[in-house]
Amino acid sequence: MSRHIAFERLHNFRDLGGYRTEDGSTVRWGRLYRADSLGKLQGEDWERFLGLGVRTVIDLRYPWEIEGKGRVPEHVSLTYRNLSVEHRPYDQASLGADVDTGRYLADRFLEVAHDGVEELREALRLIAAPGSGPLVFHCASGKDRTGLLAALVLTLLGVPEEAVIEDFTLTGLATDRLIADWRAAHPGREITWPDYGRAPAAVMRLFLDGLADRHGSVHAYARELLGADEQLVDALRAGLLERAAEPVAVV
Questions:
Q1: pTM more than 0.90
Q2: Annotated active-site positions, please?
């Protein structure tokens, strides 16, 4: 199976299937996707997207981003929710070259994890709801807000931390195309932050460590602030995991 799904105008659309959990289960393919802005869907890209059978779209952007850039096209098969998890906007492209990527973005992630409790709680509830999938959640570039929610879901499913971090870094494969999109949308401006669009492992590692430092563990944060109790986690696992096939005895 391919984790990266190719589109002409989307650059960071990925299947979260295939990750192994600590108890030997595997995240199902074709059930949960992460992406950059679905407002870019049109033509053959739109037909390819519909072919995935997506039922639910969670848009993590600000309403003003949606107004300016558009949202996923309406379709009878889709349930759409806008859950703006970030409450303190900032402009990564205009940061200075002296800004440390890992520490800076991890601190922004921690802000989102605490400012956006209500929206993150609802996002987890939707992902866990029977019949909601296949489901895709996205922001603008599919890196930060999307990466944060992906990390929470994968962690609650029992995916080891190193795999969660690796999933975050895969956005690096889309960095050049995301930068090209930014430049096309901002004629006359230039990116001043050398790490714009990049997704180094240090960001996610520091973020997960920060949640553990404040709450004891990522699971404790999710349980105490997001309502990710045993029932919700069981629902996530029931909908998104499959047990590995038992080996066939050779006689």
A1: yes
A2: 139
